[in-house]
Amino acid sequence: MRPEIKEYNYDWMLGSLLKTASGIGNCSEKEIHYLLKEIPYFRGTLSVLLREGEIGFRFIRMLSLYFENLLNARDSGKKVAAITFCLSPALFHAMNIVPVTLEVMTGLAGLLWKRGAYDYLDYGCELGFTETSCSSQRGALGAYMAGLGEEINMFVCDTPGVCDTNANAFAFASAYLDKPFFQLNYPHTIGDDKTKQYHLDDYRDLITFLEEQTGYPLEEGKLRQILMEVDKQDDLLAELEDFHLLKPNPIPVIYNLFIYIGRFLFSGCPEYTALLADMLTAVESNAKTEKSGLYSGKENIRAYMCYIDHYTLDLNFFNWLDQHGIAHIGGILSRNFRDNAGYTANLEKSTYGIDTSNMTTMLSSIAEMNATLPMVRSIRGPLDGPNMWLEESLSLARTYKADCIIYNGTPGCRNTWGMVKPFAREIEAAGFPVHIMYGDAFDDRVETWESTKTRLDEFLSIRGLL
Amino acid sequence: MTLTAGCDVGSLTTKAVIMDDKAVKSSALIKSKSNPEASARQAMAEAMEKAGVTESELSNVIGTGYGREKIPFVTDVKSEISCHARGAKWLLPSIKTIIDIGGQDCKIIRIDDQGEVVRFVTNDKCASGTGRFLEVMAKALYMDISELGDLNRKSNSPVTLTSTCTVWAQADIVKFIHSGIPVEDIGAGINLAMAKRVSTLVNSVQPEKEVCMTGGVAKNRGVTSLMEKLLGFRLKPIRRADPQLVGAIGAALFGRNR
Amino acid sequence: MMKQFMQAATGLNHPGITQWKENGGAIVGYSCSYLPAELIHAAGILPIRLRGIETTGMDMGDAYFGPYICSYPKCILQQAAQGGYQMLDGAVITPGCDSMRRLFECWRKAGEDHQGVVPGFFYYFDVPHKTVDHRMKWFVDEIDSIQKAIETHFEVEITVESLHRSIATYNQGRKLMRDLERFRTQLPAPISGTEAFAISIAGTTLPREEFNATLSNFLETLENRSDKNPENPKRLMVIGSISDDLDLIKLIESNEKALVVADNLCFGVRHDAEEIPVTDNPLEALAQSYLGASTCPRMFGQYKERLAILEKKVESYSVDGVILQNIRFCDLHGSENGLFERDLEKQGIPCLKLEREYGPLADTGRLKMRLDAFMERIS
Q1: pLDDT beneath 70: ranges in chain C
Q2: Of the candidates C215, C192, C191, C188, which has an alpha carbon nearest to the alpha carbon of residue C203?
Q3: Residues of chain A positioned with their CB less than 8 A from the CB of B108
Q4: Looking at beta carbons, which residues of chain C come within 8 Å of B122?
Q5: CATH class of B95-237
Q6: Interface with C, mutate which of A410, A417, A427, A436 (most C CBs under 10 A)
Q7: Of A212, A213, C31, C100, which one has the fewest beta carbons inside 10 Å?
């Protein structure tokens, strides 16, 4: 790692940038105009967020608060846990632990800095972590392993059996830094009683582990409070989801990002609820006037992202969708499979409900909630198994009337790269054009955005979509 | 006075040097042919002619490089890692870490005070981070590889290049050219991608100072200055010989001790 | 005897297999060392490890697998799709790692394009990544399920008695392998790494009784073998990614000073677990033994235990250097090799980390260069 980079704390750099940005809300348009001139790299991403007005600011403020919590964790006597995006942070909030969602931390560097997380990505490799490992964890982990972030007290993941590359990143970092490690471990089945019992047993072990690490027991009242907030969030999400059904889709492309980043960081926290409520209001008003959420105002086609989005500088990918009049009808990350969401109608038995009557029902609820998160739900088993990736993608693409399906990940997504070709074949056979992106969602150096864009354009024109 | 020779048959170039007890008497550097033996013979013949010696006067000829097993006339063979270590130590006695960028691979070698190899790493399968990478990129820019090094000084905003695959990087370059990006920015981007790749490898062996570079890429000022910036320390230049000859010199030095 | 081992180690259709088929026996291939082979054996079926040797291209592998996938399962698929696994009556795929588990989908897809390449019995066997009680219970259930599936498909009955017999047969093989290993700890070792590796690979593909008998005879000859290994060799240990590549060990030993005396490989003697106890509940006993030993990095979070295994081996085999190899895209072994290198070098044990491709050793020259330099370093 370049020596000058070792001078700065990663969390602090991201946090202070976001804190400054969250103050822009009070600026005049003229002031913002001059400000943007001063920030050539952050400008692109910031402009996209500013375009969303108050909701964009709320999102920035939420991120800023997240860093404030993290940077003050130790002083407030809280432990810090590195977690992954497909592990719900709700339990951690209920137990007063600050969760660091590694993929968000890496992604933010990509969105906010010109050089993204490059130096940190490479630093992992300097330590012996394979360069073929997933970039989504490798970036932020590079900073933490270099001692450039807040001290991580424990590593918790739920990906063994779901994404070994992900689990391996947590195992490596915990061994490298000699910190405790815990894994939730998912079987290849979902929905049956035996699996549910297993989910619960395993989740209880997680709670025991966290209690040992913090020295405090999980309080029933606190868990209830958090779950009731999740319940509210799920109601809002279910309503938002229904608007994806409309043509034109009144949901702005970037809302997808807000929805899942919010959940990755603040599931069960009021800040996220407020953001969702604002988003719902905005979408409702669009829907009333039959307005598309796209800035061009004209919806040409609808794309279903069967995996993740692309997070490099200037929010290029989201802009590209917007410019081409492509409605983003969600992807694997934006949905959580709560039983009240309309899209789950065809995917029963792999959803969760929330029952806060007593500790037993709450534990079952939260264990099942975690079991239906992205990847954990649908790539734990064989591609064509019940409720698995193929069925989920086809069902959602049909429900939301997708015109095409786009796969994007990172070269580290061993589990999906192992089946994406058979997957694409089945999807094509079902009548959906599929595009496989070969780049890296978190590292522009694997394939530059220019190349990625050319290939996307090519796909649209060859398949006669635009 | 004993005369020894070192012959380094690489994937892109073949090098031969003839040494006496004190110094390098002569050297030759040619493009490698498809047949390692022919490359070795030609380089040796050139070097011998320059030094005015015949094969029988040489007490030992040590072979190294990829083609080393295929040279029939050598007394012994040594791996190029040991040879680069030996040669660099002789040229720069204070050296502890050697970065050798060859045509087909890149090696980082750490040695102790006696010049013994303590640790080394090499890049793996991919050509990025090797001389071959620069050669392909230079070709895509329609320029000679020796011209690449100067472009950094002229560029203000180097392009971002895919660092993991030579083929993709090449495709990117073609696209950059077509979209009218100045050639110096592309060239500087190439050097940067190369320097980043190699620096990561260097850091993985916890380099100790002094550090020097050997191999052809050591002559590319664009890459070396970027590497110094990325690594945060100075690379000690080799002045007593062409950095590309270090492996062959090391081989010839091994011949002395036999 | 050695010829028999060598044949089995280097050819998919070695005489042991063809003879078994001629006698009308069924064969089931499996992808991972976490599957208790005793179970298949107890059904009177020959269990063999799935391998990717003898492939010449990768077109079939690449047709179904994505680009960022380990070449090991790609080579297995290559073999399968071009008809190399016609001898199989069944195949069991496990989530050994993400690349391997997707053989389940890719192989079936290949079956849609190429008639008859998918065996009649094609089964996905779940293996947990940790050993806590409820996970062990899950694993026992999995073993129970596959037992029933085998019984139904092959119309056989696997009794407690037949399981006990199979466990005893496998235990005998384990004991013989431990005897062989004792020879390798000797100074000088009377057997080369190539020979020893051939034996342990043969153990994954020869009928167990035949393997035991041959090994037992071989060990007797070893007692009186005059030392044919180089004098004062550098004693090496090879660890890392899955490998049934005899050529890799041969390549290492082609350096005149190198002798591979130990390994910690999936096809090698990594699973030198204690003998499996004969109890009233053989499935439970199998589950405990197979999942209990944390030998593979797929058992996340148990790095320290695996480091301890290596440290013990370095000492008991008097190892001078460790070769840590991984197949490209094998993040599990690749990263753990990084940690091993850090921790072993700290103790003064020289390490060489190699990343390579599985399959025909195309980059032999590059590997050789590094191996030779490593030998020069430790000599």
Answers
A1: 227-229, 271-273, 360-363
A2: C215
A3: none
A4: 366, 369-370
A5: alpha beta
A6: A417
A7: A212
